[in-house]
Design a protein that fits this description.
CATH architecture of the largest domain: 3-Layer(aba) Sandwich
CATH superfamily of the largest domain: Aldehyde Dehydrogenase, Chain A, domain 1
Number of helices: 15
Oligomer: single chain
Strand order of the largest sheet: 15-16-17-14-13-18-19
Helix content: 25-40%
Structural class: alpha/beta
Radius of gyration: 23 Å
Number of domains: 2
Shape: globular
CATH topology of the largest domain: Aldehyde Dehydrogenase, Chain A, domain 1
Length: 478
C-alpha cells in the first residue's frame, strides 16, 4: 500500500491532470487509508490513448500466450493473497476471512478464463455448396468498465479477466469508496507480463471520470455494475454512440421457504442471504417469502440464528463488518424508519451499533421485519444493507406470484425437500440465477446477470466471452 495513489496508466503511476486527490476511509474506524487521484476527462483521454497501444500489443499475442499471462495473474493473486485480503478489508470493512476467499475467487476468474482464451470458437455454416461460410469472434478493442464498491476485487477481476481473455484492452473506473485493490490488481497484471496499457485504471467520481469514459468515442464496449438510476444514464449514453453495454443493476431477490423445508439449514441459509457482506450484495435474498404454516417457527429460528452473529472490525474476523460509508448507513436507517411507518413489525435489530469500540464505524444490526406486504416500500426498493422482510404465502402459485411481483430479477432461491417442486418453481421464477436449498454459492463457471431492471448481459463463465466479443461472418466462393 502507498500513502498516495495516482492513476495506473501505461504500466505506471500517473499524477492526475488536475493535481487533485480524495481520501479513502476505513469504514470500521472512519480513519484515512490513502489518498487517491481525482480523475477527469483529461485523465480518461490519456488512459484510452494508452489502451489503444495496449490493445495492439495484447491482441498481437497468440491466444495461448494471453492465457498464460492471465494464469500468471492468478498465481500472483494467490502469492499475495493476504496482502490483497487486508487491502479489501480496510477498504470495505469486510471480515478478513471473507476477503481472502474473494481474492481466491478473483484468482479463479483469471485462471478459468485464461484457460478459455485459446478456445473462443466460431462456426462453419452450411449455407451453400458454392461457398464456405464461417464465423469468427473478435474483440471490440477498448472496453470501459465502471465497477462498484461492495466487492471491488472480484468485480474488477471478473470483468477484466473476461475482456482480456477475449483479446480486449481495459480502462476501468472503480467506485471512489473502494478503489485500492483495483489499482493493485492492474499493477499485478503488468508484473505477470501483460503489455503496459492493456489494463489501465483511472480513479475518481462518476460525473468527472465515469462519464468521460462511457462517452469516449474509442471505447467500443461498456460494462457497468451499480444502481438502476446510474445504469439508465449509462445505457442512454451507449445508445447515443450505438455501442453495446452490459449492466448488472439492482435486486430485490425472493427467497422462498416451503413448509417441507429443513428448518435449520433454511434459516441459516436465509440469514446469510441477507447479511453476507453486511447485505451490500445486489443478489441478496432480502424478500423472505415463507409458507404461513411454518411462519412463527421459522421466524423464531431466524432470530436465534441472527443472535449468533458477531459484528466488528473486519480485521478481527467477525461474522459481518460495517457498511461501506456513513451515507450508506444513514440510507439503511431511513429505510428502517419507513418500514415502521408503513406498519411492518420490527422483530429484530434495526439500529446502529452503540458499543464504545464500534461507535466511530458504520456498523448496523441485522434487521428483520415481519407483517410485511409485497406493496410496502421496504419490499419494493433495494436497501443494500442487512435488512430482510418476511412475507407469508399459502400456496405454491401464490409464492411464485409474490416472487415475480418485482421490477427486479437478479437472483432467487427455493427451499424444499421436494426436488420436483424445487425444479418446477425454479423454472417459473423470473431471475437470472436460482438456487435450490442454498443461497448464492460462489462459483466462476456459471453465468451471472439479471432479468428486467436487474440488467442485461452476462458476466462469469464462458458466456462472458460472448459479452466481450463481436461476431464476423466470412464467406469464400469455392
Amino acid at each position: 500500500m502507498q500513502e498516495t495513489y495516482g492513476h495506473f496508466i501505461g504500466g505506471q503511476w500517473v499524477e492526475p491532470a488536475n493535481h487533485q486527490y480524495f481520501e479513502g476511509v476505513d469504514p470500521s474506524t472512519g480513519n484515512k487509508i490513502s489518498s487517491f487521484a481525482r480523475g477527469n476527462k483529461e485523465d480518461i483521454e490519456r488512459a484510452v490513448r494508452s489502451s489503444e497501444e495496449g490493445f495492439q500489443a495484447w491482441y498481437a499475442l497468440k491466444p495461448s500466450a494471453r492465457g498464460q499471462i492471465l494464469n500468471r495473474v492468478a498465481q500472483l493473486l494467490r502469492k499475495y493473497k493476504q496482502d490483497f485480503a487486508y487491502m479489501e478489508t480496510i477498504d470495505t470493512g469486510r471480515p478478513l476471512v471473507f476477503s481472502a476467499s474473494l481474492v481466491e475467487t478473483s484468482a479463479r476468474y483469471f485462471e478459468y478464463l485464461g484457460g478459455a482464451a485459446d478456445k473462443i470458437f466460431g462456426e462453419v455454416i452450411p449455407a451453400s455448396n458454392e461457398h464456405l461460410t464461417y464465423t469468427y469472434r473478435e474483440p471490440y478493442g477498448i472496453t470501459g468498465h465502471i465497477t462498484p464498491w461492495n466487492v471491488p476485487i472480484t468485480q474488477a477481476a471478473r470483468g477484466a479477466a473476461s475482456a482480456l481473455a477475449a483479446g480486449n484492452s481495459v480502462v476501468m473506473k472503480p467506485a471512489e469508496q473502494a478503489c485500492l485493490s483495483t489499482l493493485e490488481l492492474a499493477k499485478l497484471c503488468v508484473e505477470a507480463g501483460m503489455p503496459p496499457g492493456t489494463f489501465n485504471v483511472v480513479t475518481g467520481y462518476g460525473e468527472e471520470a465515469g462519464a468521460p469514459l462511457i462517452n469516449h468515442p474509442a471505447v467500443r464496449k461498456i460494462a457497468f455494475t451499480g444502481s438502476v438510476e446510474t445504469g439508465q444514464i449509462v445505457m442512454r449514453a451507449a445508445a447515443d454512440r450505438i455501442v453495446p453495454v452490459s449492466l448488472e443493476l439492482g435486486g430485490k431477490s425472493p427467497n422462498i421457504v416451503f413448509d417441507d423445508a429443513d428448518l435449520h439449514p433454511a434459516a441459516a441459509g436465509s440469514l446469510r442471504a441477507f447479511t453476507f457482506n453486511t447485505g451490500q450484495v445486489c443478489s441478496a435474498g432480502t424478500r423472505l417469502i415463507v409458507q404461513r404454516s411454518i411462519l412463527p417457527a421459522f421466524v423464531e429460528q431466524l432470530i436465534e440464528e441472527a443472535q449468533q452473529i458477531k459484528i466488528g472490525y473486519g480485521i478481527d474476523n467477525p461474522t459481518i463488518g460495517p457498511l461501506v460509508c456513513e451515507e450508506q448507513l444513514h440510507r439503511v436507517l431511513r429505510y428502517v424508519e419507513i418500514g415502521k411507518q408503513e406498519g411492518a413489525r420490527l422483530v429484530y435489530g434495526g439500529s446502529r451499533m452503540q458499543e464504545e469500540k464500534l461507535k466511530d464505524g458504520y456498523f448496523m444490526q441485522p434487521t428483520i421485519f415481519t407483517d410485511v406486504t409485497n406493496t410496502m416500500t421496504i419490499a419494493r426498493e433495494e436497501i443494500f444493507g442487512p435488512v430482510v422482510v418476511v412475507i407469508p404465502f399459502d400456496t405454491e402459485e401464490e409464492a411464485i406470484r409474490l416472487a415475480n411481483d418485482t421490477e427486479f430479477g437478479l437472483a432467487a432461491a427455493v427451499w424444499t425437500e421436494n426436488i420436483h417442486r424445487g425444479h418446477r418453481v425454479a423454472k417459473q421464477l423470473q431471475a437470472g440465477q436460482v438456487y435450490i436449498n442454498d443461497y448464492s454459492p460462489i462459483d466462476v463457471e456459471a453465468p451471472f446477470g439479471g432479468y428486467k431492471k436487474s440488467g442485461i448481459g452476462r458476466e462469469k463463465g464462458l458466456e462472458s466471452l460472448h459479452t466481450y466479443t463481436q461476431v464476423k461472418a466470412i464467406s469464400v466462393k469455392l
